[in-house]
TrEMBL record:
UniProt cross-references to SUPFAM superfamilies, sorted A to Z: DNA ligase/mRNA capping enzyme, catalytic domain, Nucleic acid-binding proteins
A Pfam family the protein falls into: DNA_ligase_A_C
InterPro entries according to UniProt: DNA_ligase_ATP-dep_C, DNA_ligase_ATP-dep_cent, NA-bd_OB-fold, NAD_dep_DNA_ligaseB
Domain ATP-dependent DNA ligase family profile span(s) in chain numbering: 60-224
Top EC class of this enzyme: ligase
Domain DNA ligase ATP-dependent C-terminal, chain residue ranges per copy: 252-368
Protein name per UniProt: DNA ligase (ATP)
Keywords: DNA damage, DNA repair, DNA replication, Ligase
UniProt catalytic activity: ATP + (deoxyribonucleotide)n-3'-hydroxyl + 5'-phospho-(deoxyribonucleotide)m = (deoxyribonucleotide)n+m + AMP + diphosphate
Ligase is among the record's keywords: yes
EC number: 6.5.1.1
Cofactor: a divalent metal cation
């Protein structure tokens, strides 16, 4: 059985690029998802300001440049080499970076899988690689700039070579394995890594690699497997569209809900910021309280408090440690797109967006106004690649649901009426919006003499057969002697 499908593949120079979901090997797919989740969960942000203050982890450190590309996996299997993304995209065939992998095929032991950064190299003097360059280089099908595609491996997921046939438990040994497998490569290399034991040594690497234009930041690994991402803080301008009350300070905001503007004037939520001085919280409360407007969108903070929506009148600058366009599973982060008018806010639909990490309030941008230039959503494109970020969001019209089964039962006891009802419906929405299940099973239990007269149970099902079985089980469990079917 083939590892992947090329049924929907497009040309990539003389090679092929298969879309998401093309990886057929379930073992590899699970390996990629689990690694992506584990890596995303283990990374810790280390702001550059902390490095300037000398705050770095203690002990022996492995320091590498952070390449601005995408996480892909190099699979060396039998006599072929392919590149796979966490979402199951596959690059195969006569692509220069894969042709270099032929040397690694002769060095590996069994199937071997590496993790690394796929990026588009730039000519000297053109600046460092950026994530958006990769999409441009891989576009154009047969005319794609495949010669620019490069891959720097930084870890081993599976397999090895004659010296280490199994994945070594220590990172330093896995890095050495990457170096042996990819020795002599030009486009295909192990990530450059140097040891450090002090903040001064890490700063030297920063000056050489980051200030020298070779990377967007540093990756610092400790001996106990902690991984730190060291990047410059990012300044972004966004509009305040909502606030919560502080639970600690009277007449102060708890956090601010922020949005940026798309080219067509629509707003897209990017997250919230609650890190600001107390006096600023009070100032925002004086400014925003009493300005609440209607909204058919609900958004809660981490404590469950709902934001009060306000007109988009104030632009603020926040500092963030990172901007992400994917979650830990490699799926796009979806953010609501909103429309503002005189009555208030209306939802359009969720679209691929971003999540901002560790936002800190910097200042009010009184020199900027709420317009598609000053708070443009494209501010994030230097950090992440979001293909549809500037695509107009069309309001999603969902199909009507369809009732499949409805049964009502009644029972009289001691002069009081009890009613139990089963309803099963097909949503017809699961293909249009993945937030909807295919089928819903709803059980209602009403008894006037009970302490809690009305009780409900809701179950979801992916197929009609499973939904009907859930309904049969509910009826068998709850409808006994004395109940009459009345509807």
């Amino acid at each position: 059985m083939s590892l992947f499908s090329t049924d929907s593949a497009r040309p990539l120079g003389k090679g092929k690029q298969s879309p998401a979901g093309s990886l057929l090997d379930t073992e590899l797919a699970a390996m990629f998802r689990n690694y992506k989740r584990a890596v995303a969960g283990s990374y810790r942000a280390l702001p550059f300001e902390d490095l300037q203050r000398g705050a770095v982890p203690s002990g022996a450190l492995q320091v590498s440049p952070k390449i601005d590309g995408e996480l892909w996996f190099l699979v060396l299997d039998e006599q072929q080499a392919i590149l796979c993304s966490p979402t199951g995209r596959v690059v195969s065939g006569d692509v220069p970076v894969l042709l270099e992998a032929k040397a690694a095929l002769g060095r590996k032991q069994g199937r071997t899988v590496l993790a690394g950064e796929l990026f588009a190299a730039k000519a000297p003097g053109q600046g460092r690689p950026r994530v958006g360059d990769l999409g441009s280089a891989m576009g154009g099908e047969a005319q794609a700039q495949v010669e620019r595609m490069a891959y720097f491996a930084f870890d081993v997921l599976h397999g090895g070579d004659a010296e280490a046939p199994q994945r070594p438990p220590l990172y330093v040994d896995r890095l050495a394995l990457c170096q042996r497998l990819l020795a002599g490569g030009k486009r295909l290399q192990a990530i450059k890594t140097e040891q450090a034991t002090s903040a001064d040594q890490v700063m030297q690497r920063w000056n050489e690699w980051v200030e020298g234009g070779k990377g967007e930041g540093l990756v610092v690994r400790t001996a106990d497997n902690l991984v730190f991402k060291l990047k410059p803080t990012i300044d972004i301008d966004a509009a305040i569209i909502g606030y919560t009350d502080s639970s600690d300070e009277p007449e102060a905001v708890g956090s601010l809900l922020l949005a940026m503007m798309r080219d067509d004037g629509q707003f897209q939520v990017i997250g919230a910021c609650g890190n600001m001085p107390t006096e600023q919280r009070k100032e925002f409360y004086r400014q925003l309280s009493g300005k609440s407007i209607a909204s058919n969108y609900r958004y809660a903070n981490s404590k469950g408090a709902l934001y009060r929506f306000v007109p988009p009148e104030t632009v603020i600058e926040v500092k963030v440690t990172d901007i992400q366009g994917e979650d830990s599973s490699g799926d796009p982060i979806l953010r609501m797109v909103l429309e503002h008018s005189q009555p208030g806010w209306r939802t359009i639909r969720e679209m691929p967006g971003v999540s901002i990490l560790h936002p800190v309030f910097s200042r009010v941008r009184s020199d900027k106004t709420v317009n598609p230039v000053d708070i443009r959503v494209a501010q994030v494109l230097e950090r992440v690649q979001i293909d549809s970020l500037n695509k107009k969001a069309e309001r999603l019209v969902l199909p009507a649901s369809e009732v499949i089964r409805r049964e009502v039962y009644a029972k009289s006891a001691k002069g009081q009426q009890a009613v139990r009802k089963l309803v099963i419906w097909r949503t017809n929405k699961e293909k249009a919006d993945p937030n909807y299940p295919a089928f819903v099973v709803h059980w209602t239990d009403f008894s006037a003499g009970r302490k809690t007269p009305l009780e409900r149970e809701v179950r979801l099902a992916p197929t009609l057969g499973e939904a009907l079985k859930i309904g049969d089980d509910m009826v068998a469990e709850n409808i006994k002697k004395g109940w009459d079917k009345v509807g």
